[in-house]
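**User:** I keep going back and forth on a fold encoding question. It is easy to fool oneself when nobody else works the same problem. Could you pick a protein and write out its sequence and tokenised fold? Could you put it straight underneath, so I can go through it closely?

**Assistant:**
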Amino acid sequence: MKRKKKRIRTRWNIKVFVIYAVTLFFIIFGVKTAVVKIAELIQGRVEAQSQEETDVTAEEETEKNADFPGAPPFTVDLLDINEYSRPGIALEKINGIVIHYTANPKSTAKQNRDYFEGLKDSHETKASSHFVVGIKGEIVQCIPSSEISYASNSRNSDTLSIECCHKDKSGKFTKETYQSLVELVGWLCQRFGLTSEQVIRHYDVTGKNCPKYFVEHEDEWEQFKKDVDVQIAVVEQEVETASQQ
């Protein structure tokens, strides 16, 4: 009985302290200002906790990728956490992969990655992508596969996005870009249990002419998905081989 009374007394003391602190806060700042300040304190604490939970480093993402065989070579160069290109919000679930083109002829994968990074300072717009595939086939990962990117509008919350560089206004990919894209998408599909039917164009989400060449050449888009199917099988074989070693 004595222990129970002490616990009740302790809880009551805490309640009294909280009431006293809140009352003093209102007296010092006034009702309106106090409410605003309390809200700011709560919001700041929530945001700090959220960032701590999602602030994945390049080293951590590289290690995670290494656990899944069959990936093409790529560089992990993550954006800094910021509200314009990497909000640090967790993906609900990966239900698809969205293909884009940069609409910026002759730009490199690194240049597009750095453009996304610069948005934290320019505040020009909100944009980013999980991966960028360059004209020479180089691949840069900008955002962890566990977080959303600002690329695919209503599908940001459940898809991975891939931006592709191109040489001219036609939007057609070089052989190197195409091959790296097939290998990357095939690996991601195998890793996250997706099929080629879950690989879509930005066009399929919003009607935007993106990726331009695949929108204007439907037959090439269908061939791309067939090539992804072949690559999924290749990755599955690599995974099976790795598991037996």
Observations:
- Residues 2-29 form the longest helix (28 residues).
